[in-house]
Amino acid sequence: MTQDIKEIVIIGDGFAAAVAFIHLLRRGIHCSKILLIGPGLLGKGNAYNCISPFFRLNVREDLPSVFSEDPLHFARWAKVHIDDSEAQTEAGYFYRRQDFGRYISELVSKELGSDQIDQIYAKVSNLYKANEYWCLEIDKLKTIVAQRVIIATGNPPPIWPCAVQNIQTAMSPSQLIESPWVGKDLGNIHAHEEIILLGGGLTALDAINALVGQGHQGVIKVIGPRAVFPPMQAGWKREGQPDWPKNLTPAKLVRFIRNYLPSAPTDSVVWQSAWEELRPNINMIWQQFSYFQRRILFKRLGWLWSLYRFRASPQTIKAYRKLEANKQIQFVLGRAKRIEVAQTVTVVLGDGSKVSGDRIFNCTGVGRDSLLSKLIADQIARPDALGKSIAVASDYRVSKLSGGEWDDLWMIGPATMGSLGDVIAASSIAKQAEQLSIQITLK
Ligand SMILES: Cc1cc2nc3c(=O)[nH]c(=O)nc-3n(C[C@H](O)[C@H](O)[C@H](O)COP(=O)(O)OP(=O)(O)OC[C@H]3O[C@@H](n4cnc5c(N)ncnc54)[C@H](O)[C@@H]3O)c2cc1C
Questions:
Q1: Residue 168 CB burial class (10 angstroms; 0-12, 13-18, ≥19)
Q2: Which residues, at least 6 apart from 187, have a Cβ–Cβ distance to it below 8 Å?
Q3: Could you tell me the CATH superfamily of domain 163-231+311-362?
Q4: Which residues are the signal sequence here (predicted)?
Q5: Residue 158 in contact with residue 178, Cβ under 8 Å?
């Protein structure tokens, strides 16, 4: 019986799972003691498994760092292994996401040497405790028993934010692109089609970069509550350190940030440098706030934070400006209430107005993680402050509904945002994985 019990199971196969795996191996845990469960190739996941060469990292080459002792590892690797004449900009090199995915795969292979990954290519549908072990159900077919579990299920792909009527009458499945992150249906688009982008963030900019890159001539309609895209990354540099006041409340925090930022354009070096000087302390401040305070802050400022925090690669903004100059882009303010599908696609907005096009991309952001929802429903984990995920402590242990934390269940990755703050970028996740591997190997 004990032979069937896995020592460590990592749920997920994306960047977070890969860096957790790499750091555990580097800390001396043999790969035979780790089982990975996830549907795809380790290290790719939702973010870096993209097919489209037009989808780029939104950060310059020195930022997605996997090893704290060698932050420029990727930048050096890229110089040798990436052939991409379009990567260089005034703000640094912005490489293709698929090349970053290749980098992570190479790191995994290098760390493994001649050993093999033990991976089950499936999704975990249920996780529960039986006596002292964790049981992981895989697609209801198989149950794995484990001593310790790391949840790294990442960013759930987008789902339509409203009802889609007559979905079966779509001219082709790619007329309705529910999850555009991979970029798989872009090649089939006729150059004169009218395209609707539902949502106006980085995913919409990726679609724009791809469409412009393949010579799109038709109109692109962007539907969203605001007619604004994230600013372009500038060549920012942290120079100073804010002198944070004591006893911050959300209102005082907002005031302090407002006063700290210079009155300069948000795509300028000076503005972005000040913004980036504020960021290193934000997680600590966030964690000091009560659940109530975090919810208020997120409700009031979540969209603004996302807008300025996740800035766009210069290549995507250049593509957007090209559309603007050609009068090929239109913003429609509003929120989708319903999508109707016939020969064309029509989005019915909250005020009853309609926007039609040949094809629609859902650029509305992350969906919902069914495993995390189940853990909350089954009372195994406590919901986090934002009610979107499960709560974790600062050492990534998952919080029990009954109080305290599990000693053998952790979570890393973007789903820890409600508990830990600004943890979505690759470098933050790699840091989490590194710290978790130290914790696990010291036990
Ligand atoms: C489209 C996109 C682009 C991004 N671009 C950047 C960028 O340029 N720079 C940057 O720093 N950050 C970027 N990010 C942020 C991103 O959060 C991190 O960089 C990182 O890639 C997240 O990795 P992850 O493994 O946590 O999540 P994901 O990449 O979402 O991978 C999670 C994986 O877990 C699998 N999974 C989910 N549920 C289960 C289950 N129940 N059982 C088994 N497996 C499961 C999923 O299928 C998926 O493959 C981007 C995110 C997205 C979505």
A1: exposed
A2: 214
A3: FAD/NAD(P)-binding domain (3.50.50.60)
A4: none
A5: yes
For ligand 1, what atom is nearest to the CA of residue 181?
Answer: 1
Which tokens belong to 6? Answer: 């896995």
Ligand 1 atom nearest 370 alpha carbon: 41
The residue whose CA is least distant from atom 38 of ligand 1 is 153
**What pLDDT was estimated at residue 2?**
46
pLDDT value at residue 171: 64
Among protein residues, the one with the nearest Cα to ligand 1's atom 23 is 15
What pLDDT does 170 receive? 63
**Which parts of the chain register pLDDT below 70?**
1-3, 169-172
- Closest-CA residue, ligand 1 atom 19, reads 426
Are domains 2-156+367-442 and 163-231+311-362 of this chain identical in fold? yes
The domain covering 2-156+367-442 belongs, at the CATH homologous superfamily level, to FAD/NAD(P)-binding domain (3.50.50.60)
From ligand 1's centre to the CA of 328, what distance in Å?
Answer: 31
Name 29's Cβ contacts closer than 8 Å, sequence gap at least 6.
8, 437, 440, 441
Probe residue for ligand 1, chosen from 23, 135, 155 as the CB with the greatest number of ligand atoms within 8 Å: 155
Give, using CA atoms, the residue closest to atom 45 of ligand 1.
12
| The pLDDT of residue 99 | 97
